[in-house]
Design brief:
The protein has 11 helices and 9 strands. The protein is α+β, with helices and mostly antiparallel strands. It has a 9-stranded mixed beta sheet, with helices on both faces. A hairpin with a 5-residue loop joins strand 4 and strand 5. The chain binds Dihydroxyacetone (2HA) and zinc ion.
Amino acid sequence: MKEILNAPFVKQMCKLTSNMYRMGWDERNGGNVSFLLDQEVVKDYLDINKVTKRIPINLDVKFLSGKIFIVTGTGKYFKNVEDDPSVNLGIIRVWEEGNGVDLLWGYEDGGAPTSELPSHLMTHIERLKIDPDHRVVIHTHATNIVAMTFVHDLTEREFTRTLWQMCTECMVVFPDGVGVLPWMLCGNDEIGQKTAEKMKEYRLVVWAHHGIFGTGRDIDETFGLIETVEKSAEIFIKIMHMPIKQTITDEQLRTLAKAFCVTPKSGFLNN
Ligand code: 2HA
Ligand code: ZN
């Protein structure tokens, strides 16, 4: 059996959470990450028949039966993950019946998975239906994205258009746009369901006055998506007080989409 602290997926989670902490997005216990792992890879590091704790959940996620995830712990600080992964992270496997998870490793101080587990698991279900290679869900309180939700129209079309206009690469990175949810209570099934519903159409969902959910095939891609949206929101916040002399036009956005062979979200560009 190999040392789990050296497993690439543990190292990637450590590096990601430290990085996000240093971006200033994940104050205190803000933010959470879940990463769907390959059982065959996990087996090299862990006896997957050894369950340290059975954790019932108030959800039906049978679609994910038997799937193994590494997940940040509830109440844990991203700042601390790198120094103490086995307390701040856990590896869980979804019950056959879909209404609970087995803890296989981690949360060594008696902890539990993130409070946003419903949003994570329901999002994994919807994204896996669309893309079998989907693996990662990241939730974070990216500062300028949150700021933007106070001063910008929250319709998905207008929110996405502004983000596309702030930075040339945006159309190429998220041509499918961003979903937006109005302020809602977090940490429960309702916001999980609403988030997952949006995930049928978007890889990114903004939670107004709270943060963002991003999804992707690996940690780099998912972090990169959020980072790109955040950069764009930062530029918006920097320039919104100033008289705008010019912007990226719809015609230019179309030119970009064509050059990079991406399809802009239908109806989001003006004719
Ligand atoms: O506690 O970010 O949304 C972590 C969170 C909740
Ligand atoms: Zn949050």
